[in-house]
UniProtKB/TrEMBL annotation:
The keyword Transmembrane applies. This is Peroxisome biogenesis factor 2. Its EC number is 2.3.2.36. One of its GO terms (biological process) is protein import into peroxisome matrix. It comes from the Eukaryota. Keywords: Membrane, Metal-binding, Peroxisome, Protein transport, Transferase, Transmembrane, Transmembrane helix, Transport, Ubl conjugation pathway, Zinc, Zinc-finger. PANTHER family: PEROXISOME BIOGENESIS FACTOR 2. GO terms for molecular function: ubiquitin protein ligase activity; zinc ion binding. The gene is LOC107735819. Residues 180-219 form the RING-type domain. It is found in: Peroxisome membrane.
Length: 237
């Protein structure tokens, strides 16, 4: 009542600005579906599916020689013929581009736009922006593995850290021995690379593995022989 019978369009077609046209009447002017077409359209689309799904339960309790069983066999034959006809109609639709379903071809109705389609101005700004960012992301994915992040981090730390090549005062020496030059925490398993600064073993080993040219981020001393720092040296300092 509120779909095909009212405006010759289903609910989905109404959302897409589409409705059925009676193509049996020639002419360019729009002709709505006639009442017989609407009736047979509902019967073939809804009634046929309901009868096919309910046929098994409707004819189940009848004897094998009854008319109901014969009607079920006839219905099965008609269902097979309908599938073959639907396949032929689909091939014709691919060739000619009209009547996508068998019901529409039998009734002579075609889906058309409810309002004429005007020229559309396609804006590619969003597409261009997406392509730009996707290309930039792919470039970063290719570039980042080639960058030694450990070395870059150490270089930045050395750039912003004050370089103090003098031996400094007593207070500075105490800082050198009680603070890791990389993480800034109390050195765990303290080791040295030949300068006055102390490193955690994990910090020093991970940096030297990542960068063979690792230098001290505090004074810029190149990595020499990695040696552990004795505990009594820390207590004396």
């Amino acid at each position: 009542r509120f779909t095909v019978f009212s405006n010759s369009a289903t609910v989905g077609q109404s959302l897409l600005n589409i409705r059925y046209k009676n193509s049996l009447i020639p002419g360019q002017k729009y002709r709505p579906m006639s009442r017989p077409q609407k009736f047979w359209f509902v019967l073939l689309t809804v009634g046929e599916k309901w009868l096919r799904e309910r046929s098994h339960s409707l004819f189940l309790n009848h004897p094998a020689e009854s008319n109901a069983r014969k009607a079920r066999k006839v219905l099965s034959i008609l269902t097979g013929l309908t599938k073959v006809a639907s396949l032929v109609n689909f091939l014709l639709f691919l060739q000619r581009g009209t009547y996508p379903t068998l019901t529409e071809r039998l009734l002579g109705v075609q889906p058309v736009f409810s309002r004429p389609q005007g020229p559309r101005d396609i804006n590619f700004q969003f597409l261009n922006r997406e392509l730009l960012w996707n290309g930039f992301a792919e470039f970063l994915i290719f570039l980042l593995p080639l960058i030694n992040m450990w070395k870059l981090k150490a270089s930045v730390a050395a750039l912003f850290s004050p370089l103090n090549e003098l031996r400094g005062t007593e207070g500075s020496e105490e800082t050198y021995c009680t603070e890791c030059a990389v993480c800034g925490e109390w050195p765990t398993m303290p080791h040295s690379v030949g300068c006055n600064h102390v490193f955690c073993y994990y910090c020093l080993k991970s940096h030297t593995i990542a960068d063979i040219c690792f230098t001290c981020p505090k004074c810029g001393t190149e990595t020499g022989m990695i040696e552990p720092v004795r505990l009594h040296e820390l207590h004396q300092s």
